[in-house]
Design goal:
This protein has 133 residues and is mainly α. Helices cover 45% and strands 9% of the residues. β2 and β3 (69-71) form a beta hairpin. It starts with a helix and ends with a helix.
Length: 133
């Protein structure tokens, strides 16, 4: 079956991305201009891995400006639907797709951040994430 390789291309992270993330960020990772931000070349996606882990676990809310376009949406939190390995897998996929070349994320990092942020109420904002050191 010629199509069977598509679901596993990119490994388990691609499967999670296709099931949970692609509806907004699109299969291309380019998002929808003015609505959902691109993951291609995203400083948040490809920088310090603690930032995208926090975003996937707790969600993210605007307003933000990406590529000159204002976006004021809310990304849902996935902490109750994805386990540590799934979060690590999907972020590793995002960080190595569409020209992104950031290092992999491991489940131990996700577990640590999940514990550190367990009392976080609501989605992260850009200002909160930028203030993290």
């Amino acid at each position: 079956d010629a199509g069977s390789g598509l679901a596993t291309k990119g490994g388990p992270g691609a499967v999670v991305f296709n099931q949970k993330c692609a509806v907004c960020h699109q299969m291309t990772g380019k998002g929808i201009p003015g609505v959902y931000p691109t993951l291609e070349g995203s400083a948040f996606a490809t920088g310090d891995p603690k930032i995208p882990v926090r975003i996937v676990l707790h969600g993210f809310q605007g307003p933000i400006v990406r590529n000159g376009q204002s976006i004021n949406g809310v990304m849902q939190p996935w902490q109750n639907e994805l386990d540590d390995q799934q979060v690590a897998d999907v972020l590793t996929y995002i960080r190595s797709s569409w020209g992104n070349t950031a290092p992999a994320v491991d489940a131990a990092t996700v577990k640590q951040i999940r514990e550190e942020t367990k009392n976080k109420a609501g989605a992260f904002t850009e200002a909160e994430l930028k203030s993290l050191k």
